[in-house]
Design a protein that fits this description.
By secondary structure, this protein is α+β, with helices and mostly antiparallel strands. Helix content is 48%, strand content 17%. Strands 13, 14, 15, 16, 17 and 18 form a 6-stranded mixed sheet that branches. The chain has a 5-stranded mixed sheet with strand order 2-7-6-5-4. Strands 9-8-12-11-10 form a 5-stranded antiparallel sheet, with helices on both faces. It is elongated.
């Protein structure tokens, strides 16, 4: 906690005035002290406002210059010179030396007691400390509320937001971080954790570099490998950051140590709520405990998992528990449906399936608003249906249709009576109908664009497309016909 010289000068009841050194100093005053010592530096730690009347100095002489330079070297933030006692004005030697070394000098008038200045500075610092404590208490409540519904990820997110820092939780398989661009903190934290001797197992380890400090705080988990909560700050951690970090460590410990029966009951309630959401009964008024299942933008993804249903939910719940996350899963005839955060990707889903047989696969929806969960379920189901024997996770995309083996088989059958006819004509007559048709279709029927791509005149292209229509007995002005032929072309070249 500290005050600036500018704040000090604004305290009108003190009637202080700037006399020398920089007018807008960025140095922080952390303490105020009155002393008449000629050299007080052995008792200074930096950041002080030194108050003196210059009792031990003459008005002229090099001692004044030496005095100012000694204070500057000791890290003094500001010099307050009291006039009207031993000196009617501040000696010019002090002002000149202050200008030279960049030490702010303020004049304290005779009728302003040094005690009043000290009291003002220390009172403001105490107020700041109290404000920080109040803020910490408020943030503690917010982190606790987040932990109730969002688990470890919510704790990490709230701590990072409250402290404006990067935060990560690392463990044997646990990995959570915030903000999204703080993924490199996970690697940094793991490197630091690997350097810690197991026998030492310190509660806190900090590594400082220019402009940043990474601190690891041990999370005591029974029967588990070392788990740490890491925080990256631009400088040494403040008292409030330490308080909030300690609170977060406690909440993470409670979350990861949550009794199995309590977690099972919470998962059961999550399953009931998820069923209502996926069935379209909660499209407008989504309960807060389900909102916490989404990311910061209220986006979700649904994953449909196909495999041995009697094992899937238990295995995925175990993986979620290792990551300190609540489980939102509903059993289906062929497996289960999962509600995930919009920020979760294919890699995250694949990790959830780590302990399941290789034949288990999943379809993952696009990112949608939580109120669009039924649509996300349909997307995930289509993606799962398109999964082949070697696919672990298939994401729903616009090109996913061609990844389906039944669809590919149908399109290849269509190509056998369309594209194959054109290809045979090209072989016999040394024509270029297949390439011309594809360029025409991909250019959405724009003659100039397709002709430029083929490096032919547009009339040449028109003749080729007319020949295609005659051979296939189709009308290429029909959007449906163009779509079928383009899909057939794509299927034959996939």
């Amino acid at each position: 906690m500290s005050v600036q010289m500018s704040w000090l000068l604004r305290q009108r009841h003190l009637r202080l005035s700037h006399r020398g050194g920089p007018e807008r100093s960025s140095e922080s005053i952390t303490f105020a002290q009155a002393t008449e010592l000629i050299d007080p530096s052995p008792w200074l730690s930096g950041g002080e406002l030194i108050l003196t009347t210059g009792l031990g100095f003459d008005s002229d002489g090099p001692a004044l210059d030496t005095y100012v330079r000694t204070l500057s070297t000791a890290g003094v933030a500001c010099l307050g010179f009291g006039t009207g006692l031993s000196h009617s004005t501040i000696p010019q030697h002090i002002l000149d030396a202050a200008d030279d070394v960049g030490l702010p000098v303020v004049e304290v008038p005779y009728d302003t007691p040094f005690a009043a200045v000290i009291r003002a500075v220390m009172k403001r610092i105490s107020e700041q400390e109290y404000e920080q404590v109040v803020r910490a208490a408020s943030v503690q409540n917010r982190i606790t509320r987040a932990a109730l519904h969002g688990g470890v990820d919510a704790i990490v997110r709230e701590l990072a937001v409250a402290t404006s820092t990067s935060v990560a939780l690392i463990g044997r398989r646990t990995e959570s971080f915030h903000p999204t661009d703080a993924s490199n903190l996970v690697d940094q934290a793991r490197d630091i954790a690997r350097s810690i001797r197991p026998s030492a197992s310190p509660a806190t380890v900090s590594v400082s570099e220019p402009g940043r400090t990474v601190s690891l705080h041990s999370v005591p988990i029974t029967g588990s490998a070392s788990t740490f909560l890491a925080i990256r700050t631009t400088g040494p951690m403040t008292g409030v950051e330490q308080i909030l970090l300690g609170h977060a460590v406690s909440l993470v410990t409670l979350e990861l140590e949550k009794p199995a029966r309590l977690r099972a009951e919470q998962s059961r309630l999550n399953t009931l709520a998820l069923g209502l959401l996926l069935d379209g009964h909660l499209t407008t008024d989504v309960p807060s405990y389900l909102t916490d299942a989404a990311d910061e933008d209220s986006l979700i993804r649904v994953a449909v998992v196909r495999g041995p249903s009697e094992r899937i939910v238990d295995a995925i719940d175990a993986e979620c528990r290792l990551r300190g996350r609540p489980t939102f899963a509903r059993t289906t005839d062929t497996g289960c449906a999962l509600l995930l955060r919009g920020s979760d990707d294919i890699t995250f889903v694949a990790r959830l399936l780590d302990s399941l047989p290789r034949s288990t696969c999943a379809g993952l929806s696009a990112r949608l608003h939580i109120t669009e969960s039924p649509a996300a379920l349909r997307q995930a189901s289509l993606a799962c249906a398109a999964a082949g024997s070697h696919d672990r996770v298939v994401e729903f995309t616009g090109s996913m249709l061609l990844a389906s083996e039944p669809v590919q088989e149908s399109l290849r059958a269509m190509a056998a009576v369309t594209i194959a006819v054109l290809a045979e004509y090209d072989r016999v007559h040394t024509a270029d109908l297949v390439a011309s048709l594809r360029a025409f279709l991909e250019a959405n029927g724009h003659w100039e664009t397709a002709a430029a791509q083929l490096s032919v005149h547009r009339h040449t292209l028109r003749n080729r497309i007319t020949r295609c229509e005659e051979l296939l007995a189709v009308d290429l002005t029909s959007a449906r016909v163009r779509a079928e032929l383009l899909l057939s072309l794509l299927a034959t070249t996939a």
